[in-house]
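Researcher: I'm preparing a figure for a lab meeting and need a structural model of a single chain. I don't have an experimental structure, so a prediction will have to do for now. The sequence is pasted below. Please return the structure as tokens so I can convert it later.
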Amino acid sequence: MTTYRLARPALALLLATTALPALAQEAVPDAAAAAEAQIERIRTLDDAGPKLNAVIVYEPEAANYANEAEEAGTRLAGRTVLVKDNVETSEWPTTAGSLALADNATGRDAPMIALLRRSGGVVLGKTNLSEWANIRSNNSTSGWSGVGGLTKNPYATDRNSCGSSSGSGAAIAAGFAWGAIGTETNGSITCPASINGLVGFKPSVGIVSRTHVVPISSTQDTAGPMTRTVYDAALLLTAIAGPDQADPVTLEAKRVADYTAGLNTASLQGVRIGVLRGAVGDRPDVKALFETALADLQRAGAELVDVEYEAPGELWEASLPVLLFELRVEMDKYLAGRPGTGGPRSLAEVVAFNTANADKEMRWFNQDLFEQALTTTDAEAYAKNLATLRRLTRAEGIDKLLSQHKVTFLVAPTEGPAWTTDLVNGDHFSGGIGAGYLAAIAGYPHITVPMGGVEGLPIGLSIMGGQWQDHAVLKAGAVFERARTAKLPVPTFAPWKPAGE
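Model: Understood. Here is the structure written out token by token.
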């Protein structure tokens, strides 16, 4: 763990021309005290004790910045936010968890971070992640990086925190900050949020800028909030959402000015919701929990409609080639454009670095996907595969399911319970649970909200909607959150053991 003491301009100067109105929702009671308490928790539970390895670096002066923001009457009022370490912040290097980028101190704020600060959010630090956002190897262990080591799950420290936003999920579950920013290409916000008992929201691609974020995919990457409540997720999204001339897809997005508006009074009365029965998997405990969540939705007024869907084989055949083609293009662009002269300037140079430092970087798993990406160069095949993905997840996927069944949302369990971490053999997910890949590949909104637990391990409920229906999905999540009857598990900060032992 590294701490920094920084000399920065007074927040009042930063806000002089960009201050936002405060929301009616009650502000954080004594933001400075909250920040101090969170730093103490990091020192006690991340640096020591169970050593969760969720936070790579933090700002010891956060309480001062929180006090300034609260006094300025800003939207976030000094709330603290941890940022996944593939998003650039001006204070610290942005490593993507890789030793190859250990010195990647760009001195830049990603546009979303600039917006966060202008809204009175305090960047408390950077969080660990699955290295390179889990795109390096087919046999990786989620939550491990060369820079940060292995992130542990606060609910059971011998179990996985999922990836790639593993540190963001574990940190908020452990109470290290008010909220966190994660990023997702396919499941990297929603899986760690579900497994760490949080609300995670993957926006429509384009709602949040991707500039100065270490990339994977130009068509699927997005940042999003990870918080304890739906309201907080909406509040954080409001702060970081906005157009960016350097990221053209953000200029097409249909946003609302305030994603918290109407959450407290939202209703599902008479709203038809599609239930993806084929995405429930075969675990009786997860099925029972899901049935309880469905009953909660019905009591809240929703009309449930069973929806049959099975992903065609050609979707999976096209998916990885698209990601690998975009990875090579976008990574080369990002690395070549970094300030300074040190470090890798292309994906090929990253591959060479890993080979030269295999004892540190590739002890647990290799870089087969990076190597494959270097040879995935057929632009014509890429265009064909991308068209296939867009057709199968949009026109013949979510759009068709919503229209054909006359439903507004689709629901399913997000993921199974956290698995035992195994650096030797890699991840082992519970098969057949979840359908978040549909929203991820389509670029559509997806929220996961805690719906209970299995043997003390959190399970989330996924709610997905059509493109730009982000506000509606957040409202649906808020209704379920209020209607939920299942008891939620609590972190133990200890290895898992059966209930009663």
